[in-house]
Write a structure and sequence with these properties.
Layout: E1 3-8, H1 12-16, E2 27-38, H2 42-53, H3 58-61, E3 66-69, H4 76-103, E4 106-109, H5 112-122, E5 127-131, H6 132-140, E6 145-149, E7 157-164, H7 171-181, H8 184-192, E8 196-197
Parallel strand pairs: 3-4, 3-5
Antiparallel strand pairs: 1-7, 2-5, 2-6, 2-7, 2-8
């Protein structure tokens, strides 16, 4: 292994393990979570827009079938739960991950970036929360998926970082790759899918 590209909200635990050669050059890009919905499902699309736009969204969430990442298996669930708390407090969080799971109107994924768009297109769910890049990939692939931005005040940020491992066997090749993904051409590819170049105050 020569380089890592990882995602999260901080990387202190990685740095303490002395995995990377240069801890000052880790942070790369960031993105947010969004609602994804079926373009052909006008009701689901409307509700997703309303959930995304209305801070007190519990009443909207109650009316829609959701695909949500399972907190037991998927790290994205931590950011999503934080966003739900920002948008509607414990009421919205408990509705989405408690009441709706119990009554079957929230279905939990194991691999959200695969299952959420598939279940939306199959009609198993009307909407779901994914990373922005995942929703934009589906849109660009021509699938009947659209995304709805969650207001910045209610959203959370994931920071993606890349760095060379301390004992890289092919350090020159690893450095060339890291130089590329940080270059204007590399960042343009990231931006095509909704990523933004990392800034310390991006969250």
């Amino acid at each position: 292994m020569n380089q890592y590209v990882v995602a999260g909200t901080h990387f202190g635990h990685v740095l303490e393990a002395d995995v990377f050669r240069n801890a000052t050059e880790l942070d790369l890009a960031h993105e947010h979570v969004v609602f994804a919905a079926n373009l052909d499902d006008s009701a689901g699309n409307t509700e997703a827009h309303q959930c995304g736009a209305v801070p007190a969204a519990a009443s909207r969430a109650a009316a829609i079938r959701l695909a949500m990442p399972n907190p037991k298996f998927e790290g994205i669930a931590r950011q999503i739960k934080t966003s739900l708390e920002h948008a509607g407090g414990d009421t919205l969080l408990n509705d989405v991950y408690g009441t709706k799971v119990a009554d079957g109107s929230t279905v939990l994924t194991h691999i959200h970036h695969r299952q959420t768009p598939l279940w939306i297109m199959q009609g198993k769910a009307q909407a779901g929360v994914t990373w922005q890049s995942e929703a934009m990939f589906e849109e660009q692939a021509g699938h009947p998926i659209s995304h709805v931005d969650i207001p910045a005040a209610d959203n959370t940020t994931a920071i993606y970082a890349g760095g060379m491992t301390t004992h890289a066997l092919h350090a020159e090749a690893a450095q060339r790759w890291l130089d590329f993904i940080r270059s204007p051409a590399g960042l343009a590819i990231f931006e095509r899918y909704g990523f933004k170049p990392y800034q310390a105050n991006a969250g």
